[in-house]
Input
Amino acid sequence: MFCPKCGSENPEGSAFCTSCGMKLPILSGSPEVQEGSASFPVATQNVPVGTTASPPPPQSTGGVMPPSPGRPTPPPGGMPGVSPTGASMPGAQPPMGTPIPPQHSQGQARKRKALPWVLALLGVLVVAAVVVVLVFFVFGAKSDTKAAEETVRNLYRSLEKKDFALLMECLEPSYRQELEEALGKDLKPLFNEYFFTQFPKDLKIEIRALETMIKGNTATVKVTDGTVTYTDESGKKVAEEASESDVDEIPLVKVDGKWYVAGDFFRQEGLDPEELKGLYDLLKGTKGGQEEKEDTGKDEGTAGDTGEKPRTEAEELALVEKIMLDYARKNSVPGYQFVLLSLMINDSEAVGVCMAAGEYESFAILARKGSAGWYCYDMGTGIDIPTWYQAEMSELWEVLRDYANDNAAPGSRLDVGKVHLWGREGVCQLLDAKGEVAGYALAYRGAGGWRATAMGDESILPRWYREKMYYLSE
Output
């Protein structure tokens, strides 16, 4: 028989366990047990006479463990009060509803429950660890996304505020190092005098929503909802919505746990360190003049500073035109071809109007003449145009308008269309009431200002204008 406390096997008829000393229950059928009694009351199974009862589920009686393979089978002892056929025996009526005792004592039950409790505790710890990992992953991902987006916000802030130090903080360290090595002490002046001047002075950028994709140590951030406001060259207030514009994705890289704007992004925007070095040389007038001297064999400095023969007005216009076209190509998308539609020089300043082949929008290019020659310093549609050029264009337009209407057919009125000038010459299109080109008018600038000289068809047009007719008609 087996001890109900420790489970040790004991000889049949033992009164106490040889291992733990617990008193052992008396088996039914032994001499100490009277017939019709049981060590534990068992609920009887009442089955109608004449029917066969289903075998009852295995129950231990008297606290005896059920037989198992490899263990001796306890002596047979029928269920008290139940006949072998399952019919109720008269006189055997144990109390109804008395619970069948467990197979083991409570002491052993507590031991068996210890393992499930340990497993449950381990399960809790595992779940807790998973939760911690998930918390760090979720909140870490959110924190990483926020950090990446803050880098992009700072980039836009630096452009809005023209903040050189803030911009440098956004740059990929290796790219920033390349800039510092290529430009040295000229780095800050270049960005302040050239880069930031490309943006309107009253530029305002409001970012309301960003779309961020992170993959390892790289990411892309795109403004999906925001507004950019500024004043254009005509003085008109402009507001552009990100949702209605083709906003570029800004690539980021993570270096030492911090996000930066990738250097390749700036290179693609034309800010290659070596090219910037060459550009600043032009701004300072130390390279552009040398290049032109090699190309033309002539001095580009102020007349008389080297003793060489000064250039004619046509030669000066041709030189400045070449410098402006080179500047446009170097600072624009590769592959574009440009034509200069208008050009006027006023002492040491020049203004040109440029257009890319196949495009419809023109933009201004500004140049100055230093001790070493001409150099360009700005271009775009939102830059500040010198007041002297605005005054020249206004005067030319009024002169051509008055001349055209003074010489128009009786009862008709002509409007001035596109106006272009080249040095001292000016040309405009004349539009009829339907807005169609009806002719052209010419003007010339003398010592006393602009005066109209002719009006007619294409036969009166100067050569420089004819060469640009294709672009002007687009």
Summary: The first strand starts at residue 204 and ends at 215. Residues 397 and 419 are 7 Å apart (CA to CA). The chain is about 35% helix and 25% strand. Residues 29-55, 58-140, 286-307 have pLDDT under 50 and may be disordered.
